[in-house]
Design goal:
Helix content: 25-40%
Order of helices and strands: HEEEHEHEHEHEEHEEEHEHEHEE
Structural class: alpha/beta
Number of strands: 15
Number of domains: 2
Number of helices: 9
Shape: globular
Strand content: 15-25%
Strand order of the largest sheet: 5-4-1-13-14-15
CATH class of the largest domain: Alpha Beta
CATH superfamily of the largest domain: HAD superfamily/HAD-like
Largest sheet: 6 strands, parallel
Length: about 260
């Protein structure tokens, strides 16, 4: 724990670590207060591409946490950065929520339903047969297929929901083309996050509730790793994976030292 507390940079997943739906998890306020008090560099990382940093700032404010928008980094932002570096001024056919569209616009990427350079899939609630057919048409005609993240499922207040990788599967199967996924655990997103904080991997830690995204992202990027049991992964699930987190905690509330 002392090694964990000495780190300069903290990367934290959100859903399952900071909140469940619209409910703040126990100990989170104390953890965030400790980050500020100890002058830690921190970034909330989320594979959900549907929200902008401003949206996430407002969500936490509604839950009683005052965190500046600069402390958020989404798979939508990482996807926009990747596309703008790969092909500046490119266009995309996008299936996603407003947060993803805003990130792409901000990166100078135009929306195109005629001859796009890319088809970009994120989390979406208006997923339908027509959008699948349009995406398939564009990919067959040469558009590159991009997924904002590789999550098969995601949590909700009503249980598990299909996420980006599940939604992009019909397009992959129909075209024979595989999507390239940008978000965690892709080291692309982790390197961008470390650049934002200005920290080296050896002086940073990732805290998450999923072995298949957060913890493997930390392992592959050389970060210290902490699994919290406040979300999807439970202690008995650890035997299912060939890699392990360095620490397993009940929640982020375990991190600030308790006053004696």
């Amino acid at each position: 724990m002392e090694q964990l507390r000495k780190h300069a940079g903290f990367f934290c997943d959100m859903d399952g670590v900071i909140y469940h739906g619209n409910k703040l998890l126990p100990g989170v306020k104390e953890f965030v207060d400790w980050l500020y008090r100890e002058d830690k560099k921190f970034l909330f990382l989320t594979n959900n591409s549907g929200k902008t940093p401003k949206d996430l700032q407002r969500k936490l404010a509604d839950l009683g946490l005052d965190v500046d928008a600069s402390h958020f980094y989404t798979s939508g932002q990482a996807t926009a950065k990747f596309l703008s570096q790969q092909m500046p001024g490119c266009s995309a056919y996008v299936i996603g929520e407003p947060g993803l569209f805003n990130c792409l616009y901000d990166a100078g990427i135009t929306i195109n339903d005629v001859n796009p350079d890319y088809v970009v899939m994120g989390e979406v609630f208006n997923y339908n047969y027509d959008t699948i057919c349009r995406a398939v048409h564009h990919v067959i005609n040469g558009a590159r297929l991009i997924g904002t993240n590789s999550d098969l499922t995601g949590p909700s207040e009503n249980g598990i929901l299909p996420a980006c990788r599940s939604l992009v599967a019909p397009i992959e199967l129909s075209t024979g083309k595989s999507a390239y996924f940008i978000g965690k655990p892709n080291p692309l997103m982790m390197r961008s996050a470390m650049e934002i904080l200005g920290v080296h991997s050896k002086e940073a830690v990732i805290i998450g509730d999923r072995m298949d995204t957060d913890i493997i992202a930390g392992v592959e990027s050389g970060l210290d790793t902490v699994l919290v049991l406040s979300g999807l992964t439970q202690r008995e699930d650890l035997v299912l994976y060939p890699y392990r987190p360095r620490l397993v905690l009940e929640g982020v509330g375990d991190i600030p030292p308790r006053d004696n």
